[in-house]
Amino acid sequence: MSTVISANGLSKTYKDSRALAGASFQIQSGRIVGLIGPNGAGKTTALKAILGLTDFDGELSVLGMDPRHSRNKLMEQVCFIADVAVLPRWLCVKDAVDFVEAVHPRFSRAKCEAFLARTKLTPRMKVKQMSKGMIVQMHLALVMAIDARLLVLDEPTLGLDLLYRKQFYQSLLEDYFDEDKTILITTHQVEEIEHILTDLMFIRDGRIVLDADMDAVGERFCEVMVGAERAAEARALKPLDERQVFGKSIFLFDNADRGHLSTLGELRRPSIADLFVATMKGTYA
Amino acid sequence: MNTLYWLVKREIWEHKGGFIRAPLIGGAIFLVLNLMTLIAGEVVSGQNFRFGGNSIRELGKMLDQRQLSMVGMGLDTAMLFSTAIISVVMGFVVFFYCLGALYDDRRDRSLLFWKSLPISDTQTVLSKVLAATIVAPAVAFVTGVVAGLITLLMYASVLSMHGLGVWQLLTLAHPFRVVANLLASIPMYFLWALPTVGWLLVCSAWAKSKPFLWAVAIPVVTGVLIWWVQLMGLMPSGNFYWSQFLPRLLGSVWPGSWFAAAHHASNNVSLGIGLEGVDNPDNPMVQFLSLGNLYATLGTATAWIGMLCGAALIAGAIWIRRWRDDT
C-alpha cells in the first residue's frame, strides 16, 4: 500500500475568508475516501489544491508530485468529475470520445464504448440535448475508461434522481474500482456512500476534524438508546450528542466504555449522517 | 503536436458557425448580389448596352493599353471584393472568438472538464491563437477566392455575350496573382494580428464578467486620460495613441489593416481605392497586387513591436489561464 496523497498544513485564504486552515491528512492507495463537511468548510478548495487548480500554502504531494508544478504530468494519472453538467454543451458523444482518446495516453476506447453501449446515448447526441443523468453517464463513461490512479469526485450526483445516483456508485464499484485505484469523494448525500467508503474524513472550518477508516469509526463511536428514566445517567457520561425519538433519548458517544453503556440501553452503530450532525454542531451558529 | 492538432480541431467543432458558416454565407450573399446586379443590368439595358455611344463590342477594340489594364484591374478588384467583404465579417468573428475563448468555458464551468485532461494551458491557449490567426483567415480567404473566381467568370461570360471574348478578359485580369496574394496574406495575418489576439485573450482569461467591456474600456479610457494630460500641457501633444496604438491593439484582427499601417509609416497618399493611376505605384490596388509590398509591412517597426507585444500578451494569457481560480 502506498501513499497517494499526503497533505501537511494545507492553507488557503481567499480575499475575505479562510478556506483551508492547516489541513493535514494522508490517503493510501486502494481506498475510497469520503471527504465530508458543511458548506464552506473547505472541501472544494482542498480538492482544487489536489488537482493543481489553485495555489496554496503548505506541503502537498499527490502521487509523489507537487500539483502546482507538475500539473500536466499529474493529470495523466488523476481524473476528476467536478459535479454534473460541466461538459461543454456543444460537444457530441463521438467527438468527446475521439478527443479524449487523442489527448489521453491512458484512455481505452473499447472500454468507453462498452460503457456507452449500456446507456441510451447515441454517437451524434450533443450534451445540450441530454438530461442531467445522461450527461453524468457520458462523463462517467469517459472517466472510467481512463486508467487513472486517483479519481476525485466533487458532488458527483448533485441534482440526479435516485436511479442515476444508485447506478453511478454501482458502476464505480463494480466496473472501475480496484486495489490500485483510489477514489476521493465529497458529497452531502452521505447515506448513499456510507456503505462504499473505506475511510472517512470530516472537514470543518478548513481543518480535518475526523480522519479514520470505517472499522475504526465503528469501534470508536457508538449510539445508545436510553429510556427517560436513565437519561440523566447517560448525560453524565458526556455524550457528543443527544436527540429524542419516540420518548426515548439517543446518545452518541466517542470512545466510551461499551460495557457500561450496554447497561443503559441498546447499543448500535451510528450512521455517518448522525455522526456528521453531532460533529458539526454549531457550525452555522 | 498531436494534442495541439486535436485542440485546434476542437475549436473548429465549437465555432463551426463563426469559422466556417459565416464566410460561406458571406460569399453566397456576395454572389447572389452580383448575380442580381448582372441580371438587372441585362434587363435594363438589354442588347443595347452602350458605353458613351459605342457598343461594348466596339469598346473592346477602342481601348488602348492603359485602358485595358484598367479593365483588368477592375476585374481584379471585383475578385478581391468578395474576399474584402468576407474579411470584414471574419474580423468580427475573430475579435469575438478571442474574447470568448478563455472566458466562456469559465462561465459555464466546462473549464473543469478540459482541465481534467492532461493538456497544458500553453497548448490550450496556443490552439486558440492558431484557430484565430490561421484557421479563420484560411477558410475566409479560400472562400473569398472561390467566390471571387466565380464572380470573375460570371462577369466574363456576361460580357462575352456582348461580344467581348472571355479569354481576352481573363487575360486582362490577374486571377493567379490575386489568388497567390490572398494565400500569401495568411502568414502575414498571423504575424499582424498577434497584438490584438493577445490583448483579447488576456481580457478573456482575466475578466470575471463582460470581457468585451474590459477589452475596449481600458484602452479607450487610457486614451481619454492621455488626451486630457496633453490638453493640460503636461505632455507633448501627438496623435500616436489614437492613430497608431489603438488600431494596432484592437483592430489588427481585420485583414488588410496592415496596409493602413504601412501607409502611415511611409507617409503615403490616401487610401481611396480607385482605378485611376494603375501605373502609379502608390495606388493601393497596385500595392496589393505586389507580394513585395505585402511583406514590406514586415519592415516597419509597428509590425515587429506588435509581434513582440503580442507574444508577451499571449504568454500572459497562458499564465492567467493556469492560475485564475474562480470556478
Write the layout of secondary structure elements.
The complex is a heterodimer of chains A (285) and B (327).
Chain A: E1 3-13, E2 18-28, E3 32-36, H1 43-50, E4 57-62, H2 71-74, E5 78-81, H3 93-103, H4 109-117, H5 132-144, E6 150-154, H6 162-176, E7 182-186, H7 190-193, E8 199-204, E9 207-213, H8 214-220, E10 221-226, H9 231-235, E11 241-245, E12 248-254, H10 258-264, E13 266-268, H11 272-279
Parallel strand pairs in A: 3-7, 3-8, 5-6, 6-7
Antiparallel strand pairs in A: 1-2, 1-4, 8-9, 10-12, 10-13, 11-12
Chain B: H1 2-14, H2 16-45, E1 50-51, E2 54-55, H3 56-62, H4 65-101, H5 104-107, H6 111-114, H7 121-161, H8 166-172, H9 175-206, H10 211-231, H11 240-251, H12 257-265, H13 284-288, H14 291-296, H15 301-323
Helix pairs in contact in B: 1-2, 1-7, 2-4, 2-7, 4-7, 4-8, 4-9, 7-8, 7-9, 7-15, 9-10, 9-11, 9-15, 10-11
Description:
- The complex is a heterodimer of chains A (285) and B (327).
- Chain A is of the alpha/beta class and 285 residues long.
- In chain A, 32% of the residues lie in helices and 28% in strands.
- Chain A folds into two domains: 203 residues, P-loop containing nucleotide triphosphate hydrolases (Rossmann fold, 3-Layer(aba) Sandwich); 63 residues, Alpha-Beta Plaits (2-Layer Sandwich), CATH 3.30.70.
- Chain A contains eleven helices and 13 strands.
- A six-stranded mixed beta sheet of chain A has the order 5-6-7-3-8-9, with helices on both faces. A four-stranded antiparallel beta sheet of chain A has the order 11-12-10-13. A three-stranded antiparallel beta sheet of chain A has the order 2-1-4, covered by helices on one side.
- In chain A, helix 4 runs antiparallel to helix 5.
- The longest helix of chain A has 15 residues.
- The model of chain A has no long low-confidence stretch (mean pLDDT 89).
- Chain B is mainly alpha-helical.
- Chain B has one domain.
- A two-stranded antiparallel sheet of chain B has the order 1-2.
- In chain B, helix 2 runs antiparallel to helix 4 and helix 4 packs across helix 8.
- About 3% of the residues of chain B have low confidence.
- The interface between A and B is medium-sized, with 31 and 26 residues.
